Amino acid sequence: MPNQIEMGISVRPFIPELEKTRAKVNQALREMNAQQLLNQIDSMKTTVGAYTDLISQHAVLNKPETVDLISSTVNPFKAQINSDLDKLKSSVSSDINDAVSKSAWHTIISNGTMLNGCGGWVAGQLMYNDSVAFGRLFGYVEIPAGGPTIDFATNPFGSTVDWTNSTLQQIVPLWPANGNDGRPILSVGFEQNASNLGLWNIISAQANPITNEAYHMFFSMPFTTFPSKIHVE
Q: Can the peptide bond before residue 184 be classed as cis, meaning omega within 30 degrees of 0?
């Protein structure tokens, strides 16, 4: 301040004392940081020493021992597990594929050929897998006047199914019903080793006699058989 010069007072004597005080404070801070660091180092030394003791006592694994254990035990075990899982997956996949293959359904639809001047249509539908087979023969038939004596169409599955010892037949309704010629009760059945479908006299088990009038009929004959009796090219 201005009056300091006038009074002859100088501030220099106070500066050294302030410097000394600041130096003491800095030294104290350095000593505190150093002590903290020393404490941390001592703690780490204690931890490392304890773990070293455990390693020497084989209470824990060191890195080389860990690598050896993984190489000699863990990796072979892992490889064996993976191999067993692959075999199991392959086996299960094979079993599933076999089951699907055996349970897979196949369908065949075939048409017959009309014979002896008969009109209409005749068809067959067959479904089968490795365990069972079933189907039906069906159609709409127009029988002309004067025929036929027996056959009206080929069997749609004449060569596909083994009909040996088959007794498949169906009584059929005809119209005009009975007509004027005394037509007997008829049924649809097999003729010529089941290669053809024909009309039979159900009472006398004889071939259908020639009729004087034309008539119509529907028929549908379901059947079951064994898959081994199905022949598919």
A: no
